[in-house]
Specification:
443 residues; Rossmann fold; Dihydrodipicolinate Reductase, domain 2; transferase; binds [cytidine-5'-phosphate] glycerylphosphoric acid ester; 25% strand; NAD(P)-bd_dom_sf; single chain; oxidoreductase; Gfo/Idh/MocA_domain; alpha/beta
């Protein structure tokens, strides 16, 4: 007898789950299905699980494919279950390809092709709120996006579009999603769009997506002209669509905690914020060869300006830039100096100069030092005059950290505005205004 085991959350049960269980059953004679507990999903960083464990188990049971259902409670359980139940085959969808190869030492590992299309008819009849998201762009950041979507329940990657059809097909094959050569077909197949193309193309793609009635999550910097940002937000509002700038730091749990502590009065009134982010880039990269839209500030400025405007607000009195440029006139190191009535801020970015990635928030009673990389906030300390007086805080930043913004984007689509304060439209418009000013002075 061939014994097969598979695991999953099986939240908002859909045809992807059904087809996976059906094919898992066909692999052998006896199928065991492990359904994750809320606690385990929390540990592994899966967000937004809606159905209770009982409902999820019941949905798996109703398919009739499972001969036995077990509960998955902890990391390491897969190995123990394989031994305990004498399993011959471990199987899971191809969105996990490679991830469970280590189990090959104990049984056969089979990745079954994930279901690419979750039909809207099925979702509508079952009143399920699963958003199908399409990706425009096939670069590095788009690569990081897909595994993170898989860790947010209620959203599914539908497919990819890129003007360069070849790279779109390659990308789609790698991630087992659909690729679309016609942008109209792409829009027909999705409810929401993630834009991960070069900066200067964002405006057109956002506009087109909104005009097709799609919610938009766009990589930073969202656009490069203030009037474009205002126009797009206005359009989105008038058409009840969500337009969302993806600055992952703003949505991460550690950064939210940091902002709460910084603005709680613990360090008194805040007078200075210094944020630095440098990344030594390959000289042949787009960031260092695109003389119009490349450079350190357009690439990293959204991150370093973020804590300054979150703490002091968008109404600064003055902003001034200092840059070191390469032989082509492109900024490889930039400092933006902010002046507020009662405070100062410095946002430092580098693509050709390396420095400590620090964030220091100074107040009238003490200061906060956030460990590098502060833009993936995990650990920070509150210091006072007495050097022995130190309070320590930490939080999680899992994987590439895009799951937090995806989760908040999804909540907003579902009508929950609770997380809107993390990066307001005013914040995004101000960030654009700053980018525009920098480009006017430096290009
Ligand atoms: N699945 C699929 N097609 C989809 C969506 C999901 O084939 N469109 C598969 C997944 O690959 C997985 C199963 O359905 O094998 C359950 O998916 P989820 O409920 O999302 O669970 P997941 O987070 O993938 O957990 O320990 C848990 C496992 O690691 C899998």
């Amino acid at each position: 007898m061939t014994k097969v085991i598979t695991y999953g959350t099986f939240d908002l049960f859909h045809e992807g789950h059904y087809r996976l269980l059906q094919r898992a059953k066909e692999l052998g004679d006896f199928l065991i299905v492990g359904v994750t507990t809320e606690g385990y999903d929390q540990t592994r960083g899966k967000l937004n699980v809606i159905d209770s464990l009982m409902t999820r188990v019941e949905n798996v049971r109703k398919t009739g494919f499972a001969d036995e259902i077990v509960i998955e409670e902890s990391p390491g359980q897969k190995f123990r279950d394989i031994k305990k139940f004498n399993i011959d085959i471990f199987t899971v969808g191809s969105d996990w390809t490679g991830h469970f190869d280590y189990l090959n030492d104990y049984c056969k590992v089979v990745y079954l092709e994930r279901t690419k299309d979750i039909s809207s008819t099925m979702l509508r009849t079952q009143k399920k709120h699963i958003q199908r998201i399409g990706i425009i762009g096939t670069g590095r950041i788009a690569e990081r996006f897909i595994p993170e979507v898989n860790l947010v329940s209620g959203i599914s990657t539908q497919g990819v579009y890129n003007l360069n059809t070849e790279s779109s097909i390659r990308f789609a094959e790698k991630w087992n999603i659909n690729s679309y050569t016609e942008i109209e077909d792409f829009f027909d197949a999705v409810d929401a769009v993630y834009i991960a193309t070069p900066h200067e193309t964002h405006y057109q793609y956002i506009k087109m997506s909104l005009e097709h009635g799609k919610h938009v999550l766009c990589e930073k910097p969202m656009v490069l002209e203030k009037k474009q940002a205002e126009e797009l937000f206005r359009y989105a509002k008038e058409h009840n669509l969500v337009l969302f700038e993806g600055i992952k730091t703003a949505y991460s749990p550690g950064f939210s905690k940091l902002m709460g502590i910084a603005c709680s009065g613990m360090i008194g009134s805040i007078r200075n914020v210094e944020a630095c982010f440098t990344k030594l880039e390959n000289p042949a990269s787009r960031e260092l060869t695109d003389l119009k839209f490349g450079g350190s500030f357009t690439e990293l400025g959204s991150y370093t300006v973020l804590p300054i405007i979150k703490i002091f607000g968008t109404e600064f009195e003055d902003i001034r830039f200092d840059s070191i440029k390469d032989e082509n006139g492109l900024d490889i190191f930039t400092k933006a100096h902010f002046k507020y009535p009662n405070g100062m801020g410095t946002a430092t970015c580098g693509l050709g100069v390396k420095s400590e990635g620090h964030l220091i928030i100074s107040g009238t009673k003490g200061y906060i030092k956030v460990d590098s990389p502060w833009w993936k906030t995990t650990y920070f300390e509150v210091h006072y005059e007495n050097p022995d007086d130190v309070e320590k805080y930490s939080d999680r930043f899992l994987g590439d950290g895009l799951r937090y913004e995806i989760n908040d984007f999804l909540s907003m689509i579902n009508g929950n505005t609770e997380s809107e304060f993390k990066l307001t439209q005013k914040d995004s418009i101000t960030l654009t205004e700053i980018m525009e000013k920098f480009m006017l002075e430096n290009r």
